[in-house]
Each structure stands twice: as structure tokens, then as C-alpha cells.
Amino acid sequence: MLIVEDDDALAGLLERYTRRLGYEPIVAGTAGRAREVFAGNAGVELALVDLTLPDEPGEKLAEELLRARESLRVVLMSGYPGSVGLLPEEFRSRAEFLSKPFLPAELQSRIENLKTKQS
Q1: Tens digits of residue pLDDT in 30-82
Q2: Is there a contact between 95 and 66 (Cβ–Cβ < 8 Å)?
Q3: Whole-prediction pTM value?
Q4: Which of 29, 31, 43, 110 is the most exposed place for a label (fewest CB within 10 A)?
Q5: Where do the domains of the chain lie?
């Protein structure tokens, strides 16, 4: 799992929580770093992507990653209004949106929704 979040405190919380769910999270604080991690880890099939990254919009990164790997699923996260509608139509079925702040159970629910869509 790839976590793309520039807020160190939130990234740490996401890392601990997803580890408890059985994932092996890798954290990247920028879109540039996320690309490097993604390219070097063929097993990444789930990404949590903040929409407000310091180097580019998260939806641009998410679209690029989804285009590169058919098996990838993405949870877009933001403290601002948003939706999977920010992505091109062809990728919306492989994404979920989560408004910050959120409870761990809400994140788990979005991940489970993506797994259901994958089946």
C-alpha cells in the first residue's frame, strides 16, 4: 500500500492504522516521491492519496498511477469538498473519496468497497 500524504502526523496515523489492517504501507510526502516508490514496487495495488500535495494536485497523481497499473485502487482524501468525479470517467470505478477528518472505520469501509469493486 502506498500512502501519499504530506502531513507527517496524519501520515504516521495512516501508516499505523493500515499496518493493523494487515498492509505493508510505504509513505511518500510528495507526488514525486510517490512516483519513485510506485515504480519500484510492482506489488502496490492500493494507494491513499491526499488531493492537496505540495508539488502537484493529488488527482493528477492518482490518474497517472491508475493509468499505469490496471490492478491499482485509490482512496482520494481531502479536507476540502471533493469526489472521485475529479478523475476521468474510466477510473472512477477504481476509486473512493474520503473527507478529512475521518475515523479509522471509515477508511476501512472505503478500502473494503474497493475490494468489492475489484471482485
Answers
A1: 999 999 999 999 999 999 999 999 999 999 999 999 999 999 999 999 998 88
A2: yes
A3: 0.95
A4: 43
A5: 2-118
